[in-house]
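Need a sequence for this fold. Nothing fancy.
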């Protein structure tokens, strides 16, 4: 079984939904009063407007979590 897959012995369907991998994205609005920290070398992305990234997070990540929760509810998990 691939790493990151959590298998519940009572239901193998859940294992297909819960495959997860390592991912992070730091998006920071570039609007500092006294200069900004040098976090680019750590992978941070400084942008003039974070709104498009917020909307992407809300639609993709939260939407995916909601889909998993709705599926689990329909399968009888409470």
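Here you go.
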């Amino acid at each position: 079984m691939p790493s990151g897959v959590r298998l519940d012995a009572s239901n193998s369907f859940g294992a297909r939904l819960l495959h997860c991998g390592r991912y992070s994205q730091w998006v920071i609005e570039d609007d500092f009063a006294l200069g900004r920290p040098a976090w680019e070398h750590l992978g941070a992305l400084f942008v003039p407007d974070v709104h498009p990234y917020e909307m992407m997070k809300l639609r993709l990540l939260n939407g995916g979590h909601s889909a998993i929760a709705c599926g689990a509810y329909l399968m009888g998990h409470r």
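For context: The helical segments are 13-17, 51-74.
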